[in-house]
Amino acid sequence: MKTDRLFQILYLLLEKKKISAPELAEKLEVSQRTIYRDVDALSACGIPVYALPGKNGGISLLPGYKFDKSFLSDREQDEILFVLQSFQAANQNINPLLAKLGASFQKSGRNWIEVDFSRWGYHKFDSETFYQIKQGILEKQLLEIEYCSSSGEHTKRRIKPARLIFKSRSWYLQAYCLRAEDFRIFKLNRIRSLMLTNEHFTDVFETLPSIDEPYPETEEMLRLKLRFSPSMAFRAYDEFSAADAETQPDGSVIVNAVFPDDGWIYSYILGFGTGVEILEPVSVKEKLREYLEKLQEHFGI
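Structure (tokenized):
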């Protein structure tokens, strides 16, 4: 939206004092002509912005300019505060910024959302993990991690963190692994230890592999068709999207989903007890029977 872009331009000018039109166009992914139109729009709103041509020129604000809150509508002010409030979910230290903006907008007590990314009982550990990863991404610092794969293998790796991803109810870290010499996805809950090193890297990760594309070390995937009983339908809705879960006339739910083909899937299915039935493939039923026999032998049942 144009209003969002205008605010971004104003923020960049307040932060950098002067910036060239080509640099702004690249950052905001628009043409230079659009940037100059936006500068005219800001000027029409009463923002003292001007552009100087030439080698040492650029777009600037008049010295001493302070942000006028009337530039934003009441709704837009709310949206900015609400977005910042959601950042607190990752335990980011933005309370001073919230306080300043809230005072500037003359708004307080409007915190309508609270999200906690940490697991029950692990708030301190998870928050510290988020902080170190964020630091590594923003400051381009190498991380040293001990990681447990889905096969149970523990490895120590040195990685260049690129971005945090929240997908399918879990947090993941996409990073360049020096051991694999390629990008990898690491599930945060499987990182057993993490250390932020003093080593920096210079890589600019402008384009990253899609997390939906299989990575070289990603497990083979298994397509499952499951039927959840009416009494267990809520679990199907908890675990799967509406696109994958089809409610039947009798209240049961048919789910078509894709999972990693490893031992984890059998303990996952057993977690639903007698409320789930495997429809396809038949081979999974046979492997599940073998898995149960091993459990009986292990526990002496």
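The chain has four domains: 2-69, 72-105, 133-200, 221-299. The CA atoms of residues 84 and 97 lie 9 Å apart.
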